[in-house]
Amino acid sequence: MKTSQLILFGFTLASGIVLADERVRLALVVQFPASVSPETRIAMERELRETVQVEWLGVEWREMSRYDSSEPFGQVMAIRVRGTCSSFAPGLARKGPLGVTHVSDGKILPFIEVDCDRVARAIEPRVFPRGTLAPRPALGRALGRVAAHEIYHVLAQSLEHEAEGVARARFGENELLLQPMRLSAASLRREKPLPKQGD
Question: Which of 22, 44, 56, 106 has the highest local Cβ count within 10 Å?
């Protein structure tokens, strides 16, 4: 998905700490607009926990309002969910990236944006008119999958895509809602722990 040269907010990585079992504590610090329901937030968290299962990572979810920068995390990723989370958002372009991973000087940064309005529009044909899925949990699942794709780019430190799975270049309705999504074996082979602060 599309990259940008912008940095969203001034997070700094906590000092690198590796647990005794060699797992790195990864904090996913998520910022939501006020319009996002608790059901959507819970579903997004659940989807991320199920999708981002890397053996050397211990994933921990923190909403921005409850994030304590003094906690001893090995790595921190900031995820900003932006928009009104409505498929009818005024001025919303029909085409554009669902998510963005930020890049500076060729380095993929741990700053991610997910466009909630575009995600809502992408799942609208299956969720909203037909009523086949509960809209709020379905939106959370889709948001989680888009965020997982961007997390993949940061973990792999790669802008490459694959034909299927979390690392695929484009997500349709099935990928956002129905088809189980995991990091593929090929993606995992490219992944390596991010450098600790000061390395």
Answer: 44
